[in-house]
Amino acid sequence: MLYTMMQQIIQVEGLRKEFGSLTAVNNLSFSVAQGDVYGFLGQNGAGKSTTIRMLLTLIAPTSGKIELFGMPLSSRRKEILRNVGAVIEKPDVYKYLSAYENLKLFARLSGVRVQHGQLMDQLEMVGLAQRAHDKVGTFSQGMKQRLGIGIALVHNPQLIVLDEPTNGLDPQGIADIRNLILRLSREMHKTVLVSSHLLSEIEQIATKVLIIDKGKKIVEGTASTLFDPAKTVVEVQALDNEEAFRLLQESTWAGALQQNRKGVLLQLDRQLIPQLHKDLVAMNIALVSLQPRHSLEDYFLRVTTGNQHVDAWQDENIVSGDTQIN
Amino acid sequence: MFTLFQTELYKIFRRPRTYIAFAAITALITIVQLGLKMDGKEYAAFVMADLNNTFQIDGKIINGYFVCYVVLQLLLVHVPLLIALIAADMISGEANMGTLRLLLTKPVGRTEFILAKFLAATVYTLLLLVWVAVLALFVSMWLFGTDDMFLLKNSYAVQIERVDIFWRYAGAFGFAALAMTTVAALGFFLSQFAENSIGPIVATMSVIIVCTILSTMSIPLFNKIKPYLFTTHMVAWKEFFDVKVNDSNETIRGTIQNPDKLIRSSLVLFFHIVAFVGASVYVFKKKDVLS
Amino acid sequence: MKMMKQLYKIICFFLVTGVTVQAKAQDMTALVNKVKAKMEMVNDYVAEGKMKTDVAFIKAPVGKVKVFYKKPDHFKLKRDNGISILPKGGVSVNMSSLIAINSFVALSAGEAIVDGVTTKVVKLLPTNDNSDIVLTTLYIDEPHLLVRKAITTTKENGTYEIQMSYGHYTSYGLPDKVVFSFNTKDYKMPKGVTLEFDDPEKLSPAQQLKNKKGKVEILYSSYVINKGIPDSMFR
Question: What is the Cα–Cα distance from A223 to A209, expressed in whole angstroms?
Fold first, then answer.
């Protein structure tokens, strides 16, 4: 299958998943284009894993639409999954089998007959060729993670989904995975969806980023704009937020627009705030407040390093930039 | 589907746990055979005590066929536990290891997946029974020779001619296969509801033990529910070892006293298998994989 | 006076009857001895035949058997490669061993018809207290010197009846068919010993009708007589 550069690999619309009374994913929409390294950010329990599992048919959505490679996931599951490789959370494989045997087994299940040489090449690529015939039970976490990625890649898929691939790894392991993802994207032109609760990881590799919290999208955009330190996030509160959002969408501000639960978010240069204010008034929007927030990075630093249950967009007492990434 | 089935078998037979059952069976059967080889006469005298008051029974009572029957009587109560060890682990074990989620992101249908797994569990069950047959029947035939079979039922004794026995064992093992597959299906079904294998294994064993006790206790209250318990039907293989007699009370070669009982039990077990597997497919298709 | 007369009558009666009994007993001993003499012509034999066990609570197939006999009382029944079920004291399936008692008192008990043949009924009482046999009633076909039927009461094994039909081997006093009937005790296996956990099976009506009489029937097809058999056969 060939996809043009702009082809959407993943398209999600209005995705929702309820577990009993808990809504894990709430009206989530996003799309991943071919060649993207799409960073999926959120704190633990934000709904990243649930979303990824829905993309991989492990969990059935309560409602919403998922298309991969332009095909509906629900009806063309097999065809789609043939082109997807995934590592979900811990890279668990059969401990009583060797790395080579695991790789071969999953290659077969992916529907490809892989020759011995190819399997060894794959292991070479993830740096496990020396241990190919050792039982996985004897492997370190980092080795298992690399084997997991090897398994995700063995059938040469278009899309690679990595759910928290650096969990439990030492700094060297984290660096290895990062380099591997960059290679996948730059040299092998794969589309990669990678989730993490650590901004620092995503920042260095992602071309596009989606941040979710409590199952809802907070912000989506290209890494270059989202992580631009010159930009500020402005929260607009109006009497009718939906109307305000609609009007802004039709205006020249549409490019800076982000949707939020309680108000309307715009990401823009600080100098543009007065202009925004004027335009809002001009559009007859019944403005309640207009507040500049700290940057996205500040926000994310907070949720990834500090206490988890902070809703940054509502919290006035934002801790400033001296917090550190663990 | 075939690939999936092959991989499942591959996994089963690469696991050390699988061989525990084979080893356990080997040990159990060897112990019984050894015991009967050393003290078979005493055992026969003990079992026949009542009959020996009136009758003098000559011939090789303790022969290969008889030994196999004794072994099956003792063993077929325990084999379900060994089957539970594998069958109840089929899905929960994968969930526990974390491989279930990886497997299900592969381009395989869930129905196919579950059927392939069940088939693999069935193959394991059948191989276990083949192993029982090899040890209990063929090794016993070799160790003890063959002769007529003299069996004591509750209220009467049956003598089956030597030439009339082998097919009965073929039938009995066939029936046992059905019974054990029922156990596998039960374990398999329960296997879906947990993310560790201990729970479903213990649950399967408990169900079997409780039902077996209910099946064997002759209490009027229990007698009413007996026909509905699959464990009651699991012992029907013994029906193969009862013959019809003609008007002058001679046994008729090649007959079974209660063939309809055998057929009814087979059907009951078969429907249990269909129900358990059907329910497994139904539940699994809807299941959210969270492990 | 009247009493004296009565007593006399009674004494007379006893005297007379007593004498008669004694006289007849003498006769019968002779007859039994004649039968015995005829039987003693057979030193040994190997016979082949079919055996059928008909006991209500035993389902057994008809099996080929081989019977070995050697004077005076060696007897062995072997099923061809099988298991044989015989009532205790099954040795007595053989007539010869019955008559093998050396010291006995034989009393006449009239005549009876067995299988359409008129026979003398002889009560045989062993004089040896240690004998297992308490009483044997023989139905002897006098002209042919054949025992047609025998009812034996033993101390250990109850009462059993043997009925014989003769054909080809009449001259040796060997039967073609022997039917051995006996009483069976109640039979009930304790559970657990048999490990049969199924429902207590009900006996079929046909089986119930047969009550507690058991039968073993042997149909002899051929005898090989007086060809010698080593004693080791009977061990």
Answer: 6
